[in-house]
């Protein structure tokens, strides 16, 4: 009877060892897979941050060049607006002068016709 109990204990221990090994192996594999995924994500974030710093340094130079180009464009626009204003003034003066001459001629013709 003692031998039968000992054999039973050995079988339970062996079964527990086999099941424990299988379960432990699956848990270890799953944990390692999760750790590798986490490491990949962290390295991806670190790479993006490193690239972001390099891009930011280049971005400042690009931004300064864009601001310079914008300032030049605004200066050209201001010059064009000034020229347009001069042309409008000249056209307005010529139009007013022509209207005054036409009005004076019409008045002179009206005066002459009434005599």
Structure overview:
The chain is built from 1 helix and no strands. By secondary structure, the protein is an all-alpha fold. The longest helix has 113 residues, at 2-114.
Please describe the topology of this protein.
Layout (H helix, E strand, L loop, with lengths): L1 H113 L1
Summarize the structure.
With 115 residues, the protein is an all-alpha fold. The protein has one helix at residues 2-114.
Find the structural class using helix and strand composition: mainly alpha
What is the typical, i.e. mean, pLDDT?
A: 82
Q: Order of helices and strands, N to C?
A: H
Oligomer: single chain
Task: Based on Cα principal axes, name the global outline.
Answer: rod-shaped
Main sheet properties: none
Low-confidence stretches: none
Comma- or semicolon-separated keywords:
mainly alpha; single chain; 115 residues
């Amino acid at each position: 009877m003692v031998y039968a109990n000992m054999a039973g204990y050995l079988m339970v221990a062996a079964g527990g060892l086999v099941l424990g090994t299988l379960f432990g192996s699956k848990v270890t594999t799953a944990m390692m897979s999760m750790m590798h995924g986490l490491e990949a994500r962290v390295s991806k974030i670190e790479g993006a941050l490193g690239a972001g710093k390099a891009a930011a340094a280049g971005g400042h130079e690009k931004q300064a060049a864009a601001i310079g180009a914008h300032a030049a464009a605004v200066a050209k626009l201001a010059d064009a607006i000034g020229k347009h204003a001069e042309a409008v003034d000249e056209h307005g003066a010529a139009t007013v002068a022509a209207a005054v001459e036409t009005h004076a001629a019409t008045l002179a013709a009206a005066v002459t016709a009434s005599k």
